[in-house]
Amino acid sequence: MEKENILQIPIEKLGFSANFCRACDTMNVSTLNDITSVSPKQLIDKKGFSYGWLGELSAYLDKKGLLHLLQRFRNIYQRHSSITKNKVEGRR
Hints:
The chain is mostly helical. It has one domain. It is 58% helix and 0% strand. The N and C termini lie far apart (46 Å).
């Protein structure tokens, strides 16, 4: 399967978990192109988004050699992790 073509294939045909597919339905995304063509903030703000969902997506893209498509999430994820850690440790 060519890397360009995989972006247009419906999510449910790519081997993701049922939970991932349900979250995609809730988020109103049906292809990897739908996911990678919006900003990280737009995805994070969608009902149905979770960091577990993002983890499954990242693992899949990594396996397919397409993880670079989520590079822009890196800074947001690191910021979220830092904020969460600070809250747990009682810092601001």
